[in-house]
From TrEMBL, chain A:
<dbReference type="Pfam" id="PF02653">
    <property type="entry name" value="BPD_transp_2"/>
</dbReference>
<dbReference type="GO" id="GO:0022857">
    <property type="term" value="F:transmembrane transporter activity"/>
</dbReference>
<protein>
    <submittedName>
        <fullName>ABC transporter permease</fullName>
    </submittedName>
</protein>
<keyword id="KW-0472">Membrane</keyword>
<feature type="transmembrane region" description="Helical">
    <location>
        <begin position="303"/>
        <end position="324"/>
    </location>
</feature>
<feature type="transmembrane region" description="Helical">
    <location>
        <begin position="122"/>
        <end position="139"/>
    </location>
</feature>
<feature type="region of interest" description="Disordered">
    <location>
        <begin position="1"/>
        <end position="31"/>
    </location>
</feature>
<dbReference type="GO" id="GO:0005886">
    <property type="term" value="C:plasma membrane"/>
</dbReference>
<feature type="transmembrane region" description="Helical">
    <location>
        <begin position="383"/>
        <end position="401"/>
    </location>
</feature>
UniProtKB/TrEMBL annotation, chain B:
<feature type="region of interest" description="Disordered">
    <location>
        <begin position="504"/>
        <end position="527"/>
    </location>
</feature>
<dbReference type="Pfam" id="PF00005">
    <property type="entry name" value="ABC_tran"/>
</dbReference>
<feature type="domain" description="ABC transporter">
    <location>
        <begin position="255"/>
        <end position="499"/>
    </location>
</feature>
<protein>
    <submittedName>
        <fullName>ABC transporter ATP-binding protein</fullName>
    </submittedName>
</protein>
<dbReference type="InterPro" id="IPR003593">
    <property type="entry name" value="AAA+_ATPase"/>
</dbReference>
<keyword id="KW-0677">Repeat</keyword>
<keyword id="KW-0813">Transport</keyword>
<dbReference type="GO" id="GO:0016887">
    <property type="term" value="F:ATP hydrolysis activity"/>
</dbReference>
<dbReference type="InterPro" id="IPR003439">
    <property type="entry name" value="ABC_transporter-like_ATP-bd"/>
</dbReference>
Length: 422, 527
């Protein structure tokens, strides 16, 4: 990967290798990397419209799945108003209950309960912020790290072990649990980084495989005496020591915990790393043009390893926040689909820290609100997955969104310069 | 067939790429379109070829207005285009490539390659192309590939042939052959639009010259105009062709290359036991046709070739086996041949591009943090010194023209104290004004005592800059000759003849019109 193919032959005139490159335009880089960059550089407008379009499409599905809509559709030409009312009711009821479950519930009995949904949203966003930040760093450095899931799992496993196996003073205990999870995630991702740097192994494939290994490793560990809860037949660990848990931010009646503040701090730290530090400069340079970075003396291999260590560490913190913040125990399913949702979060957040926090909050809201939506309106919870999937689809194809909403193509300035040149 | 463009206007956003351009190409005429990079030549041709819709103006073929919505329409109207980068499938044969797009079929939709083969043979014989229809494209030299492109256009009955910078990839000898072919096509009644910025070729072959500057036709010129006149028309001010430089004052030997070799992944020797010396204050030009090991040579010195063997000593320090970082730190400045790939980061600002190599050193870095004030000051200084034309230091690399990108690379590489400066194809794709600037800077670097290596496939550039010339052929240095060596001899050496043989051969066939040496002030003989 890092080795450039030397000119294939000395004979003048083979098209391979000896072809002069276009001096004026930008050379065509690796296609996958171009896609990655297009996604990372997609504009805020495209992202917002993609979310709105996804919600609109989901509205169609909600209506279509609604029995009342189906019933009125059979005589839509006789009484279209019935049909339209039914559609409106279905969509309104689904989205309003989603809002009530995710942000603010005016029908709740106490003021405290009215605001509870918002805190649930923030709580659900915490692991997504961590993992999304890590993935965003990878994307901007040209690494398509699909391995957040495995890194989250490993972070959860190690922080849980530190949490239940040791008896330590409160602050020390939680710090060690956090550091343990962070390092576990970093090392797990570092495997992929090292393999890529040393042997050119494709990080997409390696990280996907590491995901499977991590999940199965956790299952195995939960069957060993070191991890299994004494006296239980289920694959579940002992409860974590109270001293290892994140403190709740708003008292015991809310689940929002100190991990949220840590996540926001991590976002600020990521911003500083990428925008202000020499390491971030290297990361971005390698992501934007590895050849030029290498020619300027940057060790691209070392950057690959460091990026994966940092990205994995952040994803590991996602697992930590699950265990120390909300679960308090290690069991299968502790990581949910955080690692995969985080890919969407990072893409939606354009791989930028602020964007990632906002996107994670949106996804946290979808996650927190969907159970109420299902109970109140009967809308299947899967609709949330559809919304997420459509968002990714639209962000991956910015020209589609632009043509849907008739937006001008971005960067037409540079593109036209290219066209005029030569 | 007569082709006329009337008032063609093409606007991209706020930029008028073509501003009411009028152009008439008569039957059997070679019409040169001369202009700098970015003047709007390619845009105009893309309008003509149906890639772009003009905002205004019309295209007339034999005085009948036509609209082209795509290359297919243009081809049907008898317009053929040979792109600068060939549009050929390397693993297909010549006949298959020629057939591609309008394949002859016999009953049942089966490809009838016989027809295609016969067509290739017929055209090839008519114009003396010497092309085997069954040869694989990837086995053909560049010059032959270009002839296949021409056959492709002619096989679709093109009566107007557009050649977009056709000589950029050719050796001087191949260029001569192409010029001969163009003359024959003209004799057969084919009109040719010849897009170029090489003045010598224009004067050798064109019947009429239209000069385009900033999207406008600034005038027509006769082929009898001097190169200086043409260059001035192209740039819009008087330019000095050639490089004014004092004789070199070489000091002690600075760089010693011994038995440097690079074996590529396929096991072939891309660089075969190369040895030479460069003194401080001297420019050694590496001449040769693209792909003869020059790229590997530059990369091996820089430490970008992990398989390099042999020795490269810079002032006593061995460079082979060191990392790129260590080589740069030893005082090597490097301008890569492909600046958009290796030289700059398109999505980085000018500021950031200027510190690609030094971003983690003082004064740009304070501990782990980049000092943005110092970075901004540095950018301001370099932009001023190297005349980088940009709105601000925040402009992205991709927003700069090729010339300004190259100035940016030069600024970065020359901002450190250097022992050795290597520039590969330093002026490829640049306009006359930028070339002048880049050459001046390179000579200034030499005069400051730095050892300089210029790798160039452009003979003009080699002759202008070099104090000594090393010619490379198939991974070896076939000879090192003094600066005044004639173009003929150099051209023959680039084709693989050793110096003595090249001299005999050159004496047998004295100065070819299109390939004449260019003694200052002597007007060229035109046929």
């Amino acid at each position: 990967m890092t080795d450039r193919q030397p000119g294939t032959s000395t004979a003048p005139g083979t098209t391979k290798g000896s072809e002069p490159r276009d001096p004026s335009g930008t050379a065509e880089p690796n296609r996958g990397r171009t896609l990655l960059r297009d996604i990372a550089e997609s504009t805020g407008a495209v992202v917002t419209l993609a979310v709105l379009a996804a919600l609109a499409l989901a509205a169609v599905l909600i209506a279509a799945a609604n029995p009342e809509v189906q019933r009125t559709a059979s005589y839509v030409f006789a009484r279209p108003s019935d049909f339209l009312t039914a559609v409106w009711e279905a969509v309104w009821s689904a989205y309003s209950s989603l809002f009530r479950g995710a942000v603010f519930d005016p029908q709740a009995s106490t003021t405290e309960r009215m605001f509870r949904p918002l805190t649930e949203t923030l709580t659900a966003s915490v692991p997504l912020i961590f993992a999304g930040l890590g993935l965003g760093i990878g994307f901007r450095s040209g690494l398509f790290n699909i391995g957040a899931q495995g890194q989250v799992v490993l972070g959860a496993v190690v922080s849980a072990y530190v949490g239940f196996a040791f008896q330590l003073p409160a602050l020390l205990h939680v710090t060690l649990a956090v550091l343990g999870g962070l390092m576990a995630g970093a090392l797990w991702a570092g495997i992929a980084g090292a393999l890529k740097a040393r042997f050119g192994a494709n990080e997409v494939i390696v990280t996907i495989m590491l995901n499977s290994i991590a999940v199965l490793l956790m299952s195995y560990l939960l069957s060993t005496t070191a991890f299994k809860r004494p006296g239980s037949n289920n694959p579940i660990s002992p409860m974590l020591d109270e001293s290892a848990m994140f403190v709740p931010l708003l008292g015991d009646s809310f689940r929002l915990h100190a991990g949220w503040l840590l996540a926001l701090a991590a976002a600020v730290g990521t911003w500083w790393l990428m925008e202000r530090s020499t390491w971030g400069f290297k990361f971005r340079a390698v992501g934007a043009n590895a050849d030029a970075a290498r020619t300027a003396g940057t060790s691209v291999r070392a950057v690959y390893v460091w990026v994966m260590l940092v990205a994995g560490g952040l994803a590991g913190l996602g697992g930590v926040s699950q265990v120390l913040g909300t679960e308090g125990v290690l069991q299968e399913g502790v990581a949910g689909s955080i690692g995969f949702d985080a890919i969407t979060v990072a893409l939606l957040g354009r791989s930028r820290p602020l964007g990632t926090v906002l996107a994670a909050t949106l996804f946290g809201a979808l996650r927190a609100g969907s159970p109420l939506m299902q109970t109140v309106s009967g809308t299947p919870i899967d609709i949330v997955l559809v919304v997420q999937a459509v968002i990714v689809l639209l962000i991956a194809a910015p020209p589609l969104v632009r043509s849907m909403f008739r937006l001008p193509a971005p960067g037409s300035g540079s593109r036209l310069a290219k066209e005029v040149a030569a | 067939m007569k082709l006329e463009l009337r008032g063609i206007t093409k606007i991209f956003g706020s930029l008028v790429a073509n501003d009411h351009i009028d152009l008439v190409v008569e039957e059997g005429e070679i019409h040169a379109l001369l202009g700098e990079n970015g003047a709007g030549k390619s845009t105009l041709m893309n309008v003509l070829y149906g890639f772009y819709d003009p905002d205004d103006g019309e295209i007339l073929v034999d005085d009948v207005p036509r609209t082209f919505t795509g290359p297919g329409d243009a081809m049907a109207a008898g317009i053929g285009m040979v792109h600068q980068h060939f549009m050929l499938v390397p693993v297909f044969t010549v006949a298959e490539n020629v057939a591609l797009g309008h394949e002859p079929v016999k009953g049942g939709g089966i490809l009838d390659l016989k027809v295609a083969r016969a067509r290739v043979r017929e055209i090839s014989e008519r114009f003396g192309f010497d092309i085997d229809p069954d040869a694989l494209i990837e086995d053909l030299p560049v010059g032959a590939q270009q002839r296949v492109e021409i056959i492709k256009a002619l096989s679709r009955d093109a009566q107007v042939l557009i050649l977009d910078e056709p000589t950029a990839v050719l050796t001087p000898q191949e260029t001569d052959e192409l010029i001969e072919i163009m003359r024959e096509l003209r004799a057969a009644g084919t009109s040719i639009v010849f897009i170029t910025h090489k003045l010598r070729e224009v004067r050798a072959v064109a019947d009429r010259i239209t000069v385009i500057r900033r999207g406008k036709v600034v005038g027509t010129a006769s082929p009898q105009s001097s190169e200086k006149e043409l260059a001035s028309a192209m740039v819009g001010r008087s330019v000095s062709l050639g490089v004014e430089k004092a004789p070199a004052k070489p000091s002690d030997v600075r760089l010693q290359v011994r038995d440097l070799a690079v074996t590529n992944a396929a096991g072939a020797k891309a660089l075969d036991s190369v040895s030479f010396d460069v003194a401080g204050g001297e420019i050694l030009a590496i001449a040769g046709v693209q792909g003869n090991g020059q790229t590997e040579l530059a990369e091996a010195i820089l430490g970008m070739q992990p398989r390099a063997t042999g020795s490269v000593r810079l002032g006593g320090t061995e460079l082979v086996g060191r990392s790129i970082r260590q080589v740069l730190d030893a005082g090597v400045g490097f301008v890569p041949e492909d600046r958009s790939k290796d030289g700059i980061i398109a999505s980085f600002s000018i500021e950031e591009n200027l510190i690609l190599d030094l971003h983690d050193r003082a004064p740009f870095a304070k501990g782990p943090m980049i000092d943005r004030r110092v970075v901004a000051e540095n950018a301001e200084r370099q932009i001023e010194q190297f005349d980088v034309r940009a709105r601000s230091a925040q402009d992205l690399g991709s927003q700069l023209s090729g010339g300004n990108q190259q100035k940016l690379v030069l600024a970065r590489e020359m901002s450190r104290p250097l022992e050795l400066f290597i520039a590969s194809q330093p002026t490829r794709g640049l306009d006359v004004g930028s070339i002048e600037f880049v050459h001046k800077r390179i000579v200034a670097e030499r005069d400051a005592g730095t050892a300089v290596i210029i790798v160039s496939t452009e003979l003009d550039e080699v002759l202008d800059l070099a104090d000594r010339i090393a010619v490379m052929y198939r991974g070896q240095i076939i000879g090192v000759v003094p600066a005044g060596t004639s173009r003929d001899v150099l051209g023959l050496m680039m084709a693989g003849l050793p110096l003595a043989a090249a001299q005999t051969e050159a004496a047998k066939h004295p100065t070819h019109p299109a390939d004449a040496g260019r003694p200052a002030g002597t007007p060229e003989v035109l046929s």
